[in-house]
Amino acid sequence: MFQRHMREKNLTAKQVQALWSLFEEDLGNQVWNLLPVTDPLLRRTALAVRRLPATAFLRAGDALHLVTAREYGFTEIWTSDRRMLAAAPHFGLQGRVA
Q1: Is residue 47 located within the same domain as residue 66?
Q2: pLDDT of 7
Q3: Model confidence at 3, in pLDDT bands (50, 70, 90)?
Q4: Is the same domain home to 29 and 46?
Q5: Same domain, 27 and 64
Q6: What is the C-alpha to C-alpha distance for residues 54 and 90, in angstroms, rounded to an integer?
Q7: For the chain, how many structural domains are there in total?
Q8: How far apart are CA 9 and CA 43, in angstroms?
Q9: In terms of pTM, does the model score above 0.90?
Q10: Which domain holds residue 48?
Q11: β-bridge partners, 96
């Protein structure tokens, strides 16, 4: 996630390192609820992607996030990614701008 922003020159290597450190600190403080990626979840993600309209542009990782949110009972997903926001309703989710 951070590497892409560095490649696109939105972040410097130093900023990326600082963000990774903050993320690791958050993990240690249990700020994030990490959910398991299972074989059935991956299969449901593949099926959901195949059912998307041809006009929906979505990265595989984003599709996995959306299906995981739906499967675990979330009703909304927060992101600044415009494609993910546009795809959220196809997964029964409300997209919220982060």
Answers
A1: yes
A2: 92
A3: confident
A4: no
A5: no
A6: 12
A7: 2
A8: 35
A9: no
A10: 39-97
A11: 78
